[in-house]
Design brief:
The complex is a heterodimer of chains A (113) and B (113).
Chain A: E1 3-5, E2 10-14, E3 19-21, E4 24-26, E5 32-38, E6 44-50, E7 56-58, E8 64-68, E9 73-78, E10 87-94, E11 102-103, E12 107-112
Parallel strand pairs in A: 2-12
Antiparallel strand pairs in A: 1-4, 3-9, 5-6, 5-10, 7-8, 8-9, 10-11, 10-12
Chain B: E1 4-6, E2 10-13, E3 19-25, E4 31-38, E5 42-49, E6 56-57, E7 65-70, E8 73-78, E9 87-94, E10 103-104, E11 108-112
Parallel strand pairs in B: 2-11
Antiparallel strand pairs in B: 1-3, 3-8, 4-5, 4-9, 5-6, 7-8, 9-10, 9-11
Classes of the chains: A mainly beta (113), B mainly beta (113).
């Protein structure tokens, strides 16, 4: 079945630590891939996107993500987390040839000082 | 700066009431979307619209309807609110041909008692 999976519901890190949020997808052809962030009380904001080409993409707020075709993954990373990064993060895919955006269930990030 | 606004941040309604959620975008986008967001389920698409007076069902349209009389405004209607429609409702818009790059409003948290 076609799906997008975020296996971690909740992650806690210390400020200054590195971060990796996991995302796996299951589609016949590699879809377009996205990460969105939702800060408390806010709507979703696009962090970064992957369509094709270089498998390491840079986004806003110091985030990056790496596409790995062999693992059907698109993990989000940040070298040093700031307290303001505490939020919920959603991986999303847009299957090729569709106009839809399919969201994962989200990962809530908590940052300790 | 792009902007999507929703008429209310918080709304409390009684079971059986007719509820209107309004969304307005100022970016001249053709496409508009309504999602509901529930813990552990991520975002699920209720309805979307590609143009004025056009609408398409999403993944969970039951119990909802929509109206798009003007390009900038997309309304979600709960004909007879029920407690299982208590949720966060998010509106989004995109330009034509780029439905995957969505701009979100801040959301309306609806409670049905």
């Amino acid at each position: 079945a076609q799906s997008v999976t975020q296996p971690d519901i909740h992650i806690t890190v210390s400020e200054g630590a590195s971060l990796e949020l996991r995302c796996n997808y299951s589609y016949g052809a590699t879809p377009y891939l996205f990460w969105y962030v939702q800060s408390p009380g806010q709507g979703l904001q696009l962090l970064l996107k992957y369509f094709s080409g270089d498998t390491l993409v840079q986004g806003i707020k110091g985030f990056e993500a790496e596409f790995k075709r062999s693992q059907s993954s698109f993990n989000l990373r940040k070298p040093s987390v700031h307290w303001s990064d505490a939020a919920e993060y959603f991986c999303a895919v847009s299957p090729i040839g569709t106009d839809k955006l399919i969201f994962g269930t989200g990962t809530r990030l908590q940052v300790f000082p | 700066d792009v902007k999507v606004t929703q008429s209310s941040r918080y709304l409390v309604k009684r079971t059986g009431e007719k509820v209107f959620l309004e969304c307005v975008q100022d970016m001249d986008h053709e496409n508009m979307f309504w999602y509901r967001q529930d813990p552990g389920l991520g975002l699920r698409l209720i309805y979307f619209s590609y143009d004025v007076k056009m609408k398409e069902k999403g993944d969970i349209p039951e119990g909802y309807s929509v109206s798009r009389e003007k390009k900038e405004r997309f309304s979600l209607i709960l004909e007879s609110a029920s407690t299982n429609q208590t949720s966060m409702y998010l509106c989004a818009s995109t330009p034509r041909g780029r439905t995957y790059e969505q701009y979100f409003g801040p959301g309306t948290r609806l409670t049905v008692t």
